[in-house]
Write a structure and sequence with these properties.
Elements lengths: L30 E2 L2 E2 L1 H12 L6 H21 L4 H21 L1 H5 L11 H9 L20
Antiparallel strand pairs: 1-2
Helix pairs in contact: 1-2, 2-3
Length: about 150
Amino acid sequence: MLELWAPVGYVAAESCDCGRRGWHRDLIPDALLGLDITPACCIHDFMYSVPIDADLAYKEQADRVFLNNMLRLIENADSWLIVKKLRVTFAWLYYQAVVHFGGPSFWSGKNHPSNLVSLDLVKARLSDPRVDLALYPEPPSQPGQAS
């Protein structure tokens, strides 16, 4: 029986698919040359959705888990060697797309208000470096970071 890696606490969603809904839905495959990769997508989506305080290292881990699980599915599937090699190539391309374009999905809902700054402040600081940043509170430091 094939086992995929999933984080402790993983709960399979009642329904999940690969990618977000919307106009680009058809650009994001649920299969690689006929091999269903939805289980790998479901675990990846779960990892993107929790925990709320996740950082970039966690996103990178979720992306690597996605690739690893796709490779496990490919290795376990009965197929010709050329098909297997093509699937591995497509899995690598899929992984690269997630690494480079998955940021908005990962960060959705994770931007704590204390870490957000006004666009006006950024523009003011760019146009006049003398803008007194003391007027704006510093965001709280993350656990494990030096103040």
